[in-house]
Amino acid sequence: MMMMNPMDASMNLYNNYSLVFPLLETTTVTASETLHHPAPPYSSLIPDSFATLKTITAMKSDVSTTNVSVSRKRSIDSVDYRLPYNKNRATDFSFLGEHLFIQIHQQQLEIDNLVSQHMEKVRMELEEKRKRQVRMLMESIELRVMKRLKSKEEDIETIEKLNIALEEKVNSLCIENQIWRDLAQTNEANANALRSNLMQALTNVKESAGEDGGATVGAAANDAESCCGSNDENEVWRMIAGGAHDKEEERSERMCRKCGKEESCVVILPCRHLCLCTVCVSTLQICPICNSFKNATLHVNLI
């Protein structure tokens, strides 16, 4: 076994420290650079950590090779001298772990921020889409309501026009009813006058027939002579003939102006002429007396 002198041991010691210190310095500089120059956002720190570990491992292998080349028989001393290096390496790894945790936490915060921003953007888009759909629905409902209101307004206008037409029809019917009432009263007065004249003539005939037992002409002449106090037979016959002529003329006036066979029983409106029978009224559109157009007719029953 070969022994080393104190000078060789000192050189070996210095060589070991000279090999260790640059490694620590290099490692410290690398950590400082990593601290002052953090990884860019949205990038993974795992490759950088692996690169750092590879660098440290390579340096360690170089140190081991150097130590072996200097002295392979003083392994215990070499192990003893590497203890400060191992402590520094553990400190470096602890620092790198804290730095890595800070970077991961920062990236997690950035990811959460991005997710929240994206969620807010999606929420705003959904809200805008919902508002747009609600607006479209309201416009559609408003359009339908406007169409229905317009249709109802048109129906109301039509009903108002119909009411106006019905009111005019009612007014015309009221006027026509008043005309018919006046005509009925006039016809009733004429009928009463004719009835009284007929009763008077029958009374005169009965009084004159009481003297000679049924000679109508002589009785009428005697009755006329006794009533008038005149013996002029010509005057008596003239009165009888005039009465008969008046009755015949009145009867002819009451006959239909178209056929002349039936009695007139229909009044033409609006001229109010009693001049047609029930058969001829459907064949004429104008009054045969005044030639005015026929609007309506009124049937009259004369007793």
Automatic annotation (TrEMBL):
Keywords from the UniProt entry: Metal-binding, Zinc, Zinc-finger
Keyword Metal-binding tagged: yes
Keyword Lipid biosynthesis attached: no
Any Pfam family the entry gives: zf-C3HC4_3
InterPro entries: DEATH-like_dom_sf (IPR011029), Znf_RING (IPR001841)
A single GO molecular function term of this UniProt record: zinc ion binding
Any one GO biological process: regulation of programmed cell death
UniProt signal peptide: none
Domain RING-type: 256-291
Designated name of the protein: RING-type domain-containing protein
Species assigned in the record: Lupinus angustifolius
